[in-house]
Structure formats: structure tokens, C-alpha cells
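Reviewer comment 2.1 asked that we show a complete input and output for one of the modelled complexes. We chose the 3-hydroxybutanoyl-coenzyme A case, as it is the one discussed in the main text.
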Amino acid sequence: MRDCVTSAGTLGSVYGNDFGTPQEGDQRPRESGDPAAFTQLLADDCRIEPRDDMPEAYRKTLVRQIAQHAHSEIIGMQPEANWISRAPSLRRKAILMAKVQDEAGHGLYLYAAAETLGADRADLLDQLHSGRQKYSSIFNYPTLTWADVGAIGWLVDGAAIVNQVPLCRCSYGPYARAMVRVCKEESFHQRQGFEILHTLSHGTAAQKAMAQDAVNRYWWPSLMMFGPPDDDSPNSAQSMAWGIKRFSNDALRQRFVDMTVPQAEALGLTLPDPEIVWNDERGHYDFGEVDFTELFEVIKGNGPCNAQRMAHRREAHEDGAWVREAASAYAAKQAESGVGAA
Ligand code: 3HC
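Response of the prediction step:
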């Protein structure tokens, strides 16, 4: 994947954030206003930038996926924030606070990336709050014990990394660049989860049992994060043809299983699937069938915590109205006085 520069030049200054800035790469000029240019850019494995002509369906697909991704990041703050005040030590509390703040930051990078496509952030949030846009199924499961924080870091952030590293090569430049930063931070998150579970697993019998119980509850929902199976995934074929998705849902799910089985062994914990076995012929682990009925139910709003998550999100949004008003008033004042115009 290369970054090609349009005749309009580089775009970072236009968007005032990192996500609009093409990195070093192919510097060939390209004409705007030419519908064939989009196809050619994809064929050349170049990135599409915000000012390039793009089919409306490509733009819409990106807004849908990036918005869902952004919503997942901010809703994903809730299950872990639930444990900040009950973390077992000051060190754990500081780490968890930093992690939850990182997730808010990921949401901001992603909303900024969606804005480069002409989406309006307030409108995207309205769509989330009214249930017209989705967020990841995984955040509708409860965090019952401290070990769940470890399981989320290890499994949920681990799955997120497997899903998102290929997105660093997504055909849309601002999304791909946002993902580079997100993935670096997710790696830290995954390690902190692994470390929590490692400590518990090598602690008392009760602590080990708590770690095992958390893994038992989070394993299958983590596999569901990759989406429906390939033959039941309406968006995959087109998204892959456009270079938005680089691998199919099932391919990434398999990669996650392959990566996680040896890590579970290192932790001294088991994965709750008796069908996991190395398959020499395939060069992969076989694993049991995922219950996709559960995934579709959770997506529909019938998961254990959907109502709670949405109620909390709406309340937080309403509580934050005065901050948004103050920030807008401040920005208007700055603009009036010419500060920051440069
Ligand atoms: N949860 C909720 N909705 C899901 C889902 C899931 N686990 N998996 C699929 N869906 C939705 C899709 O969004 C799509 O919705 P639509 O009605 O708007 O079309 C529908 O189910 C059909 O699925 P498809 O496979 O056809 O959809 P996609 O091609 O978009 O693939 C995806 C789904 C793999 C999740 C893809 O959108 C993707 O890679 N998204 C970016 C990553 C992302 O959003 N991750 C969410 C987790 S974020 C996170 O983990 C934060 C970290 O801090 C832990």
C-alpha cells in the first residue's frame, strides 16, 4: 500500500490532524475529477485520500465501518471503567485509568477520520444514541470480577489487534493512519491484560479459578467480534474488493485462535473449547462452532448489557452538553479574535 499525492498536494494541513497526512511514498501527481482515477489508484495499491473522487458507496461503507468502530471504542470504556475504583492496587488503578483514556482517544481518532469523509460527528453520535448505528457486540457483556479486566485486555484487545493490524493497510488513508496509532496502544492493552491473568493464574487457587472463569466467559464472545461467518457476511466481498478489509472475518478469527492457544498454555489457563486441536494438514488449530445466533441476538440489542450500555452513553452525552457548549463558545471567540487562524 503506497501513499500517492494528488495534484492538490498533501492534505495534512487541511484536516489539522495526523490522519490527513500522507506518509512518504509514491509521489506521482494524479488528476482529480476523473472517475477512472479511483479504480486506477486501487489497482496500483495506492491510498485513497479525502480529496480524491470516490464512489458514493465506498464513502458510505467507510463511514459505516469507521463510525461503528469509533462507537465501539467509546462504549468499550464502560465495562472496564466499572473497575477503576475497585482495582486491587494503586498501580493497577493507574494503568487501568490510562487504558480507558486510550480508548476515548481511539474514539476521537476515528471520529476525526470519519469527518474527513464529510460525516458530521454530532450526527454520528445521534445515530448511535438512536440505535441506527451499531457498536461491537463484545461490550454488551458484564465485567463481574477483576479477572474480567484481564480477560478483556488479553482476549478482547488481542482480537482487536488481529482485526485492526490489517486495517493499517486499508485503502482509505486517514483510516489506515489512525489504525497505526491505535494498534500500538492496543498492544500495550493486550500485554496488561495478559499480565493481570498471569498474576492471578499464579496466585492462590481462588485467584486462578477467578481467572479461568473470566476466560471461560470471554472466549466465545471474543471470537464473535470478528463478525458473522464469511458466507453470511453481506459487506465482506465489496469491502475486500475496495481494499477496506484485507482479510475475511473467518480468516482473522482463525488467526486469532492460532495466536491465542499457545498464550493460554503460557498462562496456565485453558480455553473453554474441547474441540481445539492442532491440525497438521491445515497448519492451523481446529476449533468448535461459534454460536452465531448469540452474536445476532446481541447485535439486535438483546445481549446481557445492551440496555445498560446505551442508557449510560446517552446520560454521559447529556451530562457533557455544557462542555460542548463551552468549547464551541471558546472556539468562536478565538475565531473572532483571529487567534489560531494561522
Ligand atoms: N458487533 C456488532 N456488529 C457487528 C459485528 C460485531 N461483532 N460483526 C459484524 N457486525 C455487523 C456489521 O457492522 C454489519 O452491519 P451493517 O448492518 O451495518 O451492515 C453486519 O453485522 C454484517 O457483518 P459484515 O461482516 O458484513 O460487516 P463488515 O464487513 O463491516 O465486518 C467487522 C464487520 C469485521 C467488525 C468490520 O466492520 C471491522 O473490521 N470493523 C472495524 C473494527 C471494529 O469496528 N472493531 C470493533 C471493536 S473495537 C475494539 O475492539 C476496541 C478495543 O479497544 C477493544
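Residues 64-65, 68-69, 72-73, 76, 103, 134, 136-137, 156-157, 160, 163, 224-228, 233-236, 239, 245, 249, 299 surround 3-hydroxybutanoyl-coenzyme A (CB under 6 Å). We note this here for comparison with the apo prediction described in Section 3.2.
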